[in-house]
Amino acid sequence: MLEISNLMATNRDFTLLVDLPPLEPAIYALIGPSGGGKSTLLALLAGFQKLSSGQILWSKRNISNDPPAKRPIAILFQENNLFPHLSVERNVALALTTQKNLSPQQKQTINNALDRVGLAKHAAKKPSALSGGQQSRAALARVLLQDKPILLLDEPFSALGPALKQDMLDLVSEIAAEKQTTVIMVTHDVLDAKRIAIKTIFMHTGFVEPPKETAALFSSPSELLSAYLGKT
Amino acid sequence: MAPRSIQITACIAVSAFVFLPIIFVWREATHSTSFGSPEWSALRFTIKQAFFSAFLSVILAVPLARALARTEFRGRNLVVMLLGAPFILPVIVAVLGLIAVFGQNGVLNGILMFLGLGKISIYGFQGVLLAHVFFNLPLATRMLLFGWQSLPNERIRLGQSLGFGAWPRFRFIEFPMLCKIAPSAFAIIFVICLSSFAVALTLGGGPKSTTIELAIYQAIRFDFDFAAAALLGLMQLTLSMTAALTALSFAQNDVMGLGLDRPFVAVSRCLGESMLDFVVILFFVGFLFLPLLLLLVQGASGIWDLPGSVWSAALRSILIALGATGICLVVALPLATRVGELVATLGIAVSPLVLGTGLFLIVRPYVNPFDIAVIVTLCVNALMSLPFVLRILRPEVETTQRNFANLSEALRLGPWAKLRWVLLPRLKRPIGFAAGLTAALSMGDLGVIALFGVAEKATLPLKLYQLMGSYRMDEAASAAILLLCISVGLFWIFEKWGQWYA
């Protein structure tokens, strides 16, 4: 269970305040206007940015001061999720080791992960030889091997076409269900949220509303949410 | 821009000024009889010193750029800005500063003697390397620093997220970036060092450490052997052209995918790493500033006691610098096009000494070359700054053209009215900057003047060299401070002028 309580951070002239009820393992969409602090919240959770106050608990353990790699969290960015100079296999392998030589076991594990996302045949290729969708899959394979109970998605599929994006969302959804992962997904697209997120968190400039059932949230939006969505 | 006829005239004038001397050098070279061991040894030394200078500059720049990229401290921006300063620092001033630290009676030898260790010499191969690293390490550092800053933020965060330590971080994130940027930094510095003259003149010399440029000077000044000089000139021309073309093919524009512009996240470093970064920065800042600081201490008080001949040399240098700046700008404005920039870049591939040799050969039948030293220096200095000036001006000229072409057309502004009321006012800032660079470069130049100059018509850098040659080191130090002040002063005045009401 992920608990985010009284979390506060300041970025120059912008202060972010987040206090949420405990989050059970599920997929949560995080929506809201640009500059509202969505990416900042993910950076705080992942440990790239320091908290001013408040704390983040995972299974009752305070992880607020852990370095990024020690946190139970994997993250996918909007871009640059793969090292362009390394093969797909090596990129995925970084989740396990930075050593040059891979043991047969490790190779097998990597191969299984690649197989799971449908890239087993492309292990030796460089990311530039893959399509956008395949690159996303490769990054997802690495996330699989990182095997963290929390996954943060900072719009990693926003550059994909609608059909490819739906495929990726479904894949994420499957994996999350299998592994009981807590997923927090930043998105600008209501359809993304409706497709896989059970609950949606709406974030305005600097603070958040508690998560609501996605369907319910969009069928009777608050005034602020309607303003953001642009519906009457 | 200017009417077409003026553009074409400017192109032809610049090309003629570059190609006529080359033709004369070529013709004279055919009279040469021998291509002997001194020529081979000059060629070997030129390539050897350029290779090691470039190699050392880039290798040493790696830890400095890395430390600067990761450390935030007060004055960081100042340090980064000052890394650009060697561009306008007169070579001979830096050489004197280096002698104050590493020379026979320098600080370092003082310490070594105190410790009972032997003395080191700043002359010869190691001295040339030292001076070249002093000048080019900052350039390499700026290029690599740019590489570090263009690393995508996500990639650094991904590394953090995967728990990379120092070694994987270097291997997977920093090393691939270096592989792209370091070769072009190496190539550029290699080309610069190939035509090194002033450093070789002051710290090199002798059969074992003479560059081709220096050999040209010696052939003309000591042996009056123009055929030999011309042959060396052709050699230099071939070498620098080949190297420049190779360097161009090295040049990488690819900036590895840009990161989203998020606030920079300091790389988490352990205490040891932070300390190491700090020590690295301190060491290199010391290396770059100590020579000038010592020179200041040594020379500042003696400025007012400098003999009249130094002051008249200073005045002559200022006039040359102003003249070169004027000519350079007048030629640069009509040349601020793609073709113009190409033509001007030709000039930089031809070294000043080769150009000087050609000019010497052209005028020799008609006038005593030594009588026209000032005007030749002025023109060559203008030509040498032209590529840099065009680099600065061309984008601005093109933007102004694009933005105001229709309005000027509608108002029926003729070419001169457009120049007076649109172009010059809009371009004031870049013109000020370009003028400052040209003036400072010309002020500190010790190239073609050494070929033509005579004692009673010396420029300040040449006068400085003569003082050094006669071991009047205190006067030389004072004259160096004077030269430094004037160079920086000219740059500063022009730059401020450009910003005034702009």
Name its key features.
heterodimer, A: 232 residues, alpha/beta, Rossmann fold, seven-stranded mixed sheet, four-stranded antiparallel sheet, 8 helices, B: 502 residues, mainly alpha, MetI-like fold, 2 domains, 21 helices
Overall geometric form of chain B: globular
What structural category arises from helix and sheet content of chain B? Answer: mainly alpha
Which percent band covers the strand fraction of chain B? under 5%
State the secondary-structure class of chain A: alpha/beta
Number of helices of chain A: 8
Q: Spell out the CATH superfamily of the domain at 1-72 and 151-163 and 182-232 in chain A.
A: P-loop containing nucleotide triphosphate hydrolases
Please, what is the average pLDDT of chain A?
Answer: 90
Oligomer: heterodimer
Number of helices of chain B: 21
Q: Judging by the overall fold, what is the CATH architecture of the domain at 1-72 and 151-163 and 182-232 in chain A?
A: 3-Layer(aba) Sandwich
Q: Could you tell me the radius of gyration of chain B in angstroms?
A: 24 Å
**Biggest beta sheet summary of chain A:** 7 strands, mixed
Element-level helix/strand string of chain B: HHHHHHHHHHHHHHHHHHHHH
Uncertain regions spanning at least 5 consecutive residues of chain B: 253-265
Instruction: Compute the separation of the termini of chain B in Å.
Output: 21 Å
State the helical fraction of chain A. Answer: 25-40%
By CATH reckoning, the class of the domain at 1-72 and 151-163 and 182-232 in chain A would read Alpha Beta
